[in-house]
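Quick one, tokens below. Sequence please?
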């Protein structure tokens, strides 16, 4: 694989890793050409996604907030700051081109995001709601209740850049999912339907970012190769 077209991905997870598996499968099937998942990091020791990564031969790490809370029992803000700072250091060791948050249940603060940006590392997240709707946790349940209350008629899946404001970064991909009367009253069935859309969206959204990274790299390479004015 040509180094100029090789995109290194690091995935952050907290749970079962079905979206991680979608990425693993897409790379194996050639749907994410020129990509490699270098590492998977979970903030939950028993996250099933870690086993998925190990089966695929991907390096894994566990990075949990609890030791930081114990270190600063009366200062959660300081605990989170050091946790994020150390997570950024762990991530930057691999020098990834792209971080994909695939069900990572931790709000990333500037202590993480700033050094990631300084390292020219892109970071995206999957959120099961439309832009500007139901930010944060329990988005599927809150959208479902809003539909039952007659306040919305659709939900969706969002792939967005990560910024310090939760789920408010620039949209990379939006998949709308209309609610269907007589079908979507069942929250469990709705959740499964949304998850199936997530598995497609996270691959497509990652592919869009990979293309942006390669285009950015190409422009940088071209600018370095272009002789300065007046040179012979």
């Amino acid at each position: 694989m040509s180094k100029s077209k090789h995109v290194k991905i690091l995935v952050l997870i907290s749970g079962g890793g079905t979206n991680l598996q979608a990425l693993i499968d897409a790379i194996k099937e050639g749907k994410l050409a020129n990509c490699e998942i270098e590492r998977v990091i979970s903030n939950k020791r028993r996250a099933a996604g870690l086993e998925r990564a190990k089966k695929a031969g991907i390096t894994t790490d566990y990075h949990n907030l609890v030791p930081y809370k114990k270190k600063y029992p009366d200062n959660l803000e300081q605990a989170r700051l050091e946790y994020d700072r150390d997570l950024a250091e762990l991530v930057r060791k691999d020098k990834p081109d792209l971080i994909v948050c695939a069900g990572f249940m931790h709000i990333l603060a500037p202590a993480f995001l700033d050094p990631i940006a300084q390292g020219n590392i892109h970071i995206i997240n999957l959120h099961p709601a439309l832009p500007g709707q139901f930010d944060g946790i329990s988005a599927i349940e809150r959208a479902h209740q809003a539909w039952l209350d007659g306040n919305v008629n659709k939900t969706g899946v969002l792939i967005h850049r990560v910024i310090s404001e939760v789920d408010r970064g620039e949209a990379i991909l939006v998949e709308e999912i209309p609610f269907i009367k007589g079908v979507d009253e069942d929250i469990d069935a709705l959740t499964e339907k949304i998850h199936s859309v997530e598995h497609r969206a996270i691959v497509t959204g990652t592919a869009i970012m990979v293309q942006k990274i390669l285009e950015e790299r190409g422009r940088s390479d071209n600018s370095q190769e272009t002789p300065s004015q007046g040179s012979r």
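The mean pLDDT is 94. Strands lie at 7-13, 35-42, 59-62, 98-101, 122-127, 154-161, 171-178.
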